[in-house]
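Researcher: Structure prediction, please.
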Amino acid sequence: MTVPDVTVVTAVYNTMPYLTRCLTSLVEQTIGRDRLQVVAVDDGSTDGSGRELDRFARMYPGTVKVLHQPNSGGPAGPSNRALEHATGRYVFFIGSDDYLGPEALERLVDAADRWDSDVVLGRLVGVNSRYIHQAIYAENAAEVDLFDSALPWSLSNTKLFRRDLIEKYGLRYPEDMPVGSDQPFTIEACVRARRISVLADYDYYYAVRRLNARNITYKSRHRERLRCAEEIVAFVAGLIEPGPRRDAVLLRHFTWEIAKLLENDFLGLERDVQSDVAAGVRALAEAYLTDRIRDQLPVEARIRLAAARYGDVDHLLAVIRQDAELGIPPAVVDGDRWYAGYPGFRDPQLGIPDAWYDITAGAADWVARLDTVSAAFEGSRALLVTARSPRPDLAELTGAVALVAGDVVGATVSVVADATGTTVRARIPLDRLVADTAPGGELRTVQARVEAFGTTGVAALRGARRPVPQRTVVRRGVRLHILTTTTNHKGQLVIAVAPVTPRRLVARLRRGLPLGGK
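Model: Predicted structure follows.
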């Protein structure tokens, strides 16, 4: 029997109609079905996904293998079961609601063979405004290192892995993790790999944000997410010895998984959940958050983690409310040092070191921090954004102030100071937003950009405190695009730009929403 070049593994649970596109993108790969094996595990689907898998298995009996099992509660179990049936030289994992570019597998396998790589990343792009961290895909690279590149920010399993590596080290998914079970697998593969390569010259993988938002990640709860963060951090600590290499990986986890536990939605949790999460974050910070990690954290994440580490739940709530409800805190200037004046700064009862509040290196970014007052569409022409700085001297500190969405620069209408701050108004042209948008849509964070202290400061605009999504429709040629302004999970003002496709229309009609509804 001929050994296939690549086995594609997919864990499937209720992903119709996305599953059809996923499977179609696999069997139509230019690598050819004789070089391909697809192993799909139906994890107790109830929406017809199992029947769709069986249909593809009948159509492509030499390529598609389907396994059925009762629901396991997450992708780890089905992924492990699929690995037991994989026979390809390489293994590639795909989410069953995602899909591949037609040449993806051929290009990935060719690169792995050419460079003798154990792991190959192909550029991921987001669909339906799904966010994908892009730094690792800056350029093709025959070899990257986990510890001195942007790779820790791209730890999903959506990569090509040499199967000999997987079997040599017995790499499998921890089945007790409902969320994030691919990260221990991917981290260890990257630590063990002789060579990791990156391909940035093609759209290899389309990561889809489902319009019904039922992905397990979106449903997960704070206690579950805390437990998964604890397991990931413990896994990294057991795999990599203390020092700069471990910190390079853990920086991602403190910035992402752990800091996200303390975002604005923390305010709405039950008190016992707040207490449990705060205690868990405190333990992680005390054990693993080194000064090296602290000094690289974004200021808001750093100060919230400091509140969890040194204070009680009420202090943590006060810090989060400062961001979510009160607005930008003052800057405290002491000699040549700048500090963020959050609750707890130099409070002798807490004893939090000044370094947690120090913003000197990013003083220009701090000056660029503005709160959104309003964001209103002017028909289909422009988005008029009004933002507020607490600094009456903003114009004196800065050479120029601009509001931007991605690389689209708004036209500044006015910069007006008064006794309590400065108001900035700018129009962002919608035709530019639509023209520069990827086919699957994009999520643009609105930022303030200032020239100050001999450098350029950039900061995302805080979203409105009581956000009311605004929508408009923009035509470009024969295509329509829905533009929506709202506030993301970080409390930042964002613009979602989504092409109007037949699938999107059908999904919204099924949900009983008007065109462009949230």
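Model: Residues 222-239 form the longest helix (18 residues).
Researcher: Thanks, that helps.
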